[in-house]
Amino acid sequence: MSSGIPPTSEKPRILIVGAAGQVGRELQRTFADCGPIVAVDRESVDLAVPDQIRDLVRSANPQIILNAAAYTAVDRAESEPDLAMAINAHAPRILAEEALRLNALLVHYSTDYVFDGSKPEPWTEDDAPNPLSVYGATKLAGEQAIQNIGGNYLIFRTSWVYGPHGNNFLFTMLRLARERAKLSIVDDQFGSPTTSIELADATRAIVSGALAGQFGGPQQWAGLYHMTCSQSTTWCGLAQAIFARAGKLLEGKLPVVTPIATADYPTPAKRPRNSVLSNARLNDRFAVRLAPWQAALDAVFQALEHGSGQAAVPAQSPVPPQ
User: Fold this and answer.
1) Once rounded to an integer, what is the mean pLDDT over residues 14-32?
2) 225 a catalytic residue
3) What would you report as the CA-atom Rg of the chain, rounded to the nearest whole angstrom?
4) Residues 58-79: b if buried by 16+ CB within 10 A, e if exposed
5) Which residues does 138 contact at the CB level (< 8 Å), separation at least 6?
6) pLDDT recorded at residue 319
7) 188 has pLDDT over 90
């Protein structure tokens, strides 16, 4: 397998898919000086239409494809399985086919929800997936499609993603804190909150190293890796950490938080109880370690306090309606 690395005198052409999302926006930041970027979102390409994806890649003719697009409405996917499969599985397969044709590097992001949560220890890449939801099943299908096609690819499984932009748990908590004096939040699901900032920074470090030949040829580094911030908490623990840092943004109006069980907040899609991922393979292969989730959360608040980011509301949250 060829490396697909351009001559050192040239900067690689980069295609970012899902550029308007929280990870896509950070990828535009971290790769800004890496080479010319074509950044597209749902306004310019429909990932449920295969021909649009092929036309996009062939027009951009990239040497690096960063796929930050996904159908992430976990509960709604239960009633829209075909659309979720089209975006989360079929679109990555087409991107992998086009990347192989171009001998380009494809970077794709997957999810901790490919696991059923039954293991008490952190999940490794060698553990057998068993998704509980349509969302998890479609993301797993996307992983498998890329692996079956092969080529120069990196799949990064991550978890509980949020950041200073986009639809995420952080902004939901800030909104609810302004609306309610009391919040009940799920406290028996465990994961590693991971920021879009940390994901993008780690991706840039790994891609740059791969293109520079630091990790050998693709036969040595291509594959699936877990990529999350270190340490873990629950949704309730994350909410409490958010409020502990949000005094300025909320003008001191902090809600009382009550921990509840998953059983007290039934949702259309089942969530894994434990979806903490082991990052050992990522650390061993690339010597890359993401920050502890608490420090990463601090960095997001620093960005917000400097005027970066805009509050938005996600489709689902582990917080029951009032």
Assistant:
1) 96
2) no
3) 19
4) eebebbbbbbbbbbbbbbbbbe
5) 71, 77, 81, 84, 85, 87, 88, 89
6) 52
7) yes
Secondary element (H or E) of residue 157 = strand 152-158
Give the 3-state secondary structure of residue 317. Answer: coil
Domains of the chain: 14-167+192-232+271-291 (3.40.50.720)
* Helix (H) or strand (E) segment spanning residue 94: helix 91-102
What tokens were used for 124? 């490794």
3-state secondary structure of 40: strand
Average pLDDT (122-139) is 98
Question: If you average pLDDT over every residue of the chain, what do you get?
Answer: 92
Distance CA 187, CA 234 (A): 5
pLDDT at residue 310 tops 70: no
Burial class (CB in 10 A: 0-12, 13-18, 19+), 80: middle
Burial 213-245 (b: 16+ CB within 10 A, else e): eebeebeebbebbbbbbbebbbbbbbbbbbbeb
Distance CA 317, CA 265 (A): 10
What the block records as the tokens of 316 is 């689902």
Which is catalytic among the residues 109, 135, 162, 225? 135
Q: What are the CA-CA distances from residue 65 to residues 13, 149, 179, 254 (Å)? A: 9, 15, 41, 42
pLDDT tens track for 38-73 = 999 988 899 999 999 999 999 999 999 999 999 999
Dihedral sign from CA coordinates of 146, 151, 156, 157: positive
Q: CA 264, CA 271: separation in Å to the nearest integer?
A: 13
C-alpha–C-alpha distance, residues 235 and 226, integer Å: 20
DSSP symbol at 21: S
What is the rounded CA–CA span in Å between residue 81 and residue 52? 21
Which residue carries 């390409």 as its tokens?
A: 45
